[in-house]
């Protein structure tokens, strides 16, 4: 009876949506996502300069604020996906997020228009700076918060909203169509980010903050307009629940049944399974979680159709397996966080402002655009590895991906250490040059030093991220089935948020300790007096410790999952290669 009801509901929804969705809706969704990325990513590179210059906040505190802003955006991306899947639905989530980003960018733009929203500028030698009032600080924080809410709803939901428009399982070309959509979606994001860190940053440097922040606001006006114009044509799927709800349900159900002795031998009928389940009983690892799927009283815990009466008291064997997979990947996932922390050098833009960035006598690369080197090296390395190295390495290793996911993660972490060493050496050379020519008290002076000194470390960061992060995603995919492909992206996003928080903590602690007793902070706004090189060496030390931790985790994990593979879900092994290609882009 239940199956007939579901079939009728599917046929009814399909007939209602037969005139909606399809390829005609995809341009609206891709343009909306691309403009949001272009606008928000274009604000980030130069934001620390804007805050320190117009809000009289020192560089260390500004760095903490920006890291917290990034952390909030990443956390809200995970939360936004949960709210969308469980309550709002994807269309509403994207609509709310786009409008929120627009309002946030308008507020940020207004801070450049009205002097009342900023404190008075500092004196010539910055000894008589005026403090920022609560209202002025509230304005800038409000803009950050609204932009973060927008990113949290738009980024995880746009791609899924587009997939809803093309999801027709009876169409034999559906898989090819979906692959084409994902390729175009990720390509548009890549183009948007490239334009953000080049064109938008260039506009800010050469046309001022009013134009530089006005252009992203205008882009968001276009983003909202385009998205809403396409609204009548969208398939608006109803929320069906989130994966994370299932994880919480397992934890709660296991706690509620903590009195059950899991050491006893239960027969297969004692465990709750969904009708299509291929798993008869839970595994023996993390045995305490098995309580969540044990049926104590079938008359109380099961409905007449065989479903659980209360999903917070009884979970399926599959849900328990997913929870165990989640706990299994956590140690390995945690090893990438320190690498992500090392990518975010707090005052790197101040270093680049003091060196010669000219390509030709007439053209100078904006300091905020040097992040493009990392993006380009990541992209080039991924293409080179996939097309050239994988076929060569697979002949000798017998591994279809060239080398194992563990090896790639380890090489990525090692290259991250080399990059931090290079950054420490480069800053030592730059600082010594500044002091030797008498620029110790003039952080704005231009040194006779090429910006090309910074290219090797930035390029290595890109290669390190390509190796480690893709290795992480591949390892996670090897544990989970294709239906949970978004889980790896959610974990990576949460890792970015945690890295931002750790970065904020490190900057705060280092600045507080090194500036005690009227000493000059390592992270002083005047980087010629500070010791950013010492901070880079500290990061190198922490990355080495993290690498040793990674080796220990590898040894533990390899005992249970040879070469990153798992039999927790049989179909995960078969879909492993397809999933890697899907998110490798």
Automatic annotation (TrEMBL):
<feature type="transmembrane region" description="Helical">
    <location>
        <begin position="94"/>
        <end position="114"/>
    </location>
</feature>
<protein>
    <submittedName>
        <fullName>Protein NRT1/ PTR FAMILY 1.2-like</fullName>
    </submittedName>
</protein>
<keyword id="KW-1133">Transmembrane helix</keyword>
<dbReference type="Pfam" id="PF00854">
    <property type="entry name" value="PTR2"/>
</dbReference>
<keyword id="KW-0812">Transmembrane</keyword>
<keyword id="KW-0472">Membrane</keyword>
<dbReference type="InterPro" id="IPR000109">
    <property type="entry name" value="POT_fam"/>
</dbReference>
<feature type="transmembrane region" description="Helical">
    <location>
        <begin position="458"/>
        <end position="477"/>
    </location>
</feature>
<comment type="similarity">
    <text>Belongs to the major facilitator superfamily. Proton-dependent oligopeptide transporter (POT/PTR) (TC 2.A.17) family.</text>
</comment>
<feature type="transmembrane region" description="Helical">
    <location>
        <begin position="209"/>
        <end position="230"/>
    </location>
</feature>
<dbReference type="InterPro" id="IPR036259">
    <property type="entry name" value="MFS_trans_sf"/>
</dbReference>
<feature type="transmembrane region" description="Helical">
    <location>
        <begin position="325"/>
        <end position="345"/>
    </location>
</feature>
<feature type="transmembrane region" description="Helical">
    <location>
        <begin position="365"/>
        <end position="385"/>
    </location>
</feature>
<comment type="similarity">
    <text>Belongs to the major facilitator superfamily. Phosphate:H(+) symporter (TC 2.A.1.9) family.</text>
</comment>
<feature type="transmembrane region" description="Helical">
    <location>
        <begin position="184"/>
        <end position="203"/>
    </location>
</feature>
<feature type="transmembrane region" description="Helical">
    <location>
        <begin position="489"/>
        <end position="514"/>
    </location>
</feature>
<feature type="transmembrane region" description="Helical">
    <location>
        <begin position="534"/>
        <end position="556"/>
    </location>
</feature>
<feature type="transmembrane region" description="Helical">
    <location>
        <begin position="406"/>
        <end position="425"/>
    </location>
</feature>
<feature type="transmembrane region" description="Helical">
    <location>
        <begin position="134"/>
        <end position="154"/>
    </location>
</feature>
<feature type="transmembrane region" description="Helical">
    <location>
        <begin position="60"/>
        <end position="82"/>
    </location>
</feature>
């Amino acid at each position: 009876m239940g199956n007939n009801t579901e079939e009728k509901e599917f046929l009814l929804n399909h007939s209602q949506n037969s005139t909606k969705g399809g390829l005609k809706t995809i341009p609206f969704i891709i343009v909306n996502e691309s403009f949001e990325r272009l606008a928000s990513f274009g604000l980030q590179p130069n934001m620390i300069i804007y805050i320190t210059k117009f809000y009289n906040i020192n560089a260390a505190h500004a760095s903490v604020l920006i890291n917290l802003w990034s952390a909030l955006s990443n956390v809200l991306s995970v939360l936004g996906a949960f709210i969308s899947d469980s309550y709002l639905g994807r269309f509403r989530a994207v609509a709310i997020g786009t409008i929120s980003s627009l309002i946030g960018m308008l507020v940020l733009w207004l801070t450049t228009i009205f002097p009342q929203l900023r404190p008075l500028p500092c004196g010539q030698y910055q000894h008589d700076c005026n403090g920022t009032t609560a209202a002025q600080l509230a304005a800038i924080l409000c803009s950050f918060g609204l932009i973060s809410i927008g990113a949290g709803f738009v980024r995880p939901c746009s791609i899924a909203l587009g997939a809803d428009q093309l999801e027709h399982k009876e169409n034999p070309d559906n898989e090819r169509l979906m692959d084409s959509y994902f390729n175009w979606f990720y390509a548009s994001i890549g183009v948007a980010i490239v334009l953000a860190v080049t064109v938008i940053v260039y506009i800010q440097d050469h046309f001022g903050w009013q134009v530089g922040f006005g252009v992203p606001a205008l882009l968001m006006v276009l983003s909202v307009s385009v998205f809403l114009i396409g609204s009548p044509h969208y398939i608006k799927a109803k929320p069906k629940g989130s994966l994370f709800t299932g994880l919480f349900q397992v934890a709660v159900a296991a706690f509620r049944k903590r009195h059950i002795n899991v050491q006893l031998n239960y027969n297969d009928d004692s465990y709750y399974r969904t009708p299509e389940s291929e798993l008869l009983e839970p595994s023996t690892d993390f045995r305490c979680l098995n309580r969540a799927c044990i049926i104590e009283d079938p008359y109380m815990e099961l409905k007449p159709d065989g479903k659980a009466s209360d999903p917070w008291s009884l979970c399926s064997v599959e849900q328990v397996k997913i929870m165990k997979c989640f706990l299994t990947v956590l140690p390995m996932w945690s090893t990438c966080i320190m690498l992500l922390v090392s990518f975010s050098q707090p005052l790197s833009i101040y270093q680049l402002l003091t060196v010669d960035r000219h390509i030709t006598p007439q053209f100078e690369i904006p300091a905020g655009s040097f992040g493009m080197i990392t993006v380009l090296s990541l992209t080039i390395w991924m293409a080179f590895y996939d097309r050239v190295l994988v076929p060569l390495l697979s002949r000798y290793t017998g591994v279809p991906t060239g080398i194992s996911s563990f090896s790639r993660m380890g090489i990525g972490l090692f290259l991250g250490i080399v990059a931090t060493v290079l950054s420490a050496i480069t800053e030592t050379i730059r600082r010594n040059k500044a002091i030797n020519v008498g620029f110790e008290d003039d952080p704005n002076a231009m040194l006779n030093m090429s910006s090309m000194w910074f290219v090797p470390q930035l390029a290595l960061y890109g290669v390190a991220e390509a190796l480690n992060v893709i290795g992480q995603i591949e390892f996670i995919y090897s544990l989970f089935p294709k239906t949970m492909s978004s889980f790896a992206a959610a974990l990576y996003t949460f890792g970015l948020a945690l890295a931002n928080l750790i970065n904020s903590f490190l900057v705060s602690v280092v600045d507080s300790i090194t500036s005690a007793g009227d000493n000059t902070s390592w992270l002083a706004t005047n980087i010629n007096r500070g010791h950013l090189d010492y901070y880079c060496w500290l990061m190198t030390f922490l990355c080495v410790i993290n690498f040793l931790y990674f080796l220990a985790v590898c040894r533990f994990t390899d005992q249970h999952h040879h070469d990153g593979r798992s039999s927790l879900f049989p179909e995960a092994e078969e879909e492993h290669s397809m999933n890697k290609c899907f998110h490798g882009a």
